[in-house]
Amino acid sequence: MPPRGKIKFKLNGAIVEAEPGQTIFGAARAAGVEIPTLCEHPDFPHKANCRVCSVEVKGPSASSGQGRLVMACSTPIKDGMEVTTDSPRAKRSRNLNLELIFAEHIEKCATCVWRLNCKLLRYAEKYKIPLNRFKDRKGARPTYKFENAVELDATQCIDCRNCVEACSRIAGINYLEVSGKG
Questions:
Q1: pLDDT tier at 2 (50, 70, 90 boundaries)?
Q2: Distance (Å) of CA 52 to CA 6, 86, 92
Q3: pLDDT confidence band for 176 (50 / 70 / 90)
Q4: Which helix (DSSP H) or strand (DSSP E) does residue 145 occupy?
Q5: Quick one: average pLDDT of 8-25?
Q6: With the C-alpha atoms ordered 75, 78, 81, 84, is the resulting torsion angle positive or negative?
Q7: Is-contact 81 13, C-beta < 8 A?
Q8: Which DSSP category does 2 fall into?
């Protein structure tokens, strides 16, 4: 079977080409358009857990009239699709998801290994997110220590589930799992 040609779609009003099977996230990144994400990891498939990569889509796979919100990391590009990364609805969804994630995250920035490269704080600043609108929802979560090798502080969790993926795919031990809402 001959290879399919490139897919043409609109990204923030500009016509862009993408490879067949590419997601909105991948096509946007290739076109130089940043879509925020917290759960993306280069070694794992996209999971659409953080829901920060919310974009608005019109065209194929969208209902007529107003576009619908989809997760850019898990939605494949289709020919003729119109994607807007910064529409009012996409911004509202992204910002609310960031606020809710932050409400589930105890600020231990001074002792955090990511303090100088924290996506959550960078996005909060970039998108002017009020970080204290919602009551803290994770303060009572425990810290799990596995001998001297691994320590998981559940109060720092942003529900990206990358630790579960690493345990399963890299370590091959399938020890960690999601229970309840994280």
A1: very low
A2: 27, 12, 10
A3: confident
A4: strand 143-146
A5: 94
A6: positive
A7: no
A8: P
Angle formed at CA 175 by CA 155 and CA 162, multiple of 5 degrees: 50
pLDDT of res. 30: 94
Nearest Cα neighbor of 12 from 86, 123, 120 is 86
* pTM given for the model: 0.77
The C-alpha angle with vertex 110 and arms to 109 and 111, in degrees rounded to 5, equals: 90
| Distance of alpha carbon 182 from alpha carbon 177, whole angstroms | 9
| Helix or strand run (H / E) with residue 57 | strand 54-58
Give buried/exposed letters for 68-81 (b at 16+ CB in 10 A, else e): ebbbbbebebbeeb
Q: Please identify which residue in the block is written with the tokens 């910002």.
A: 95
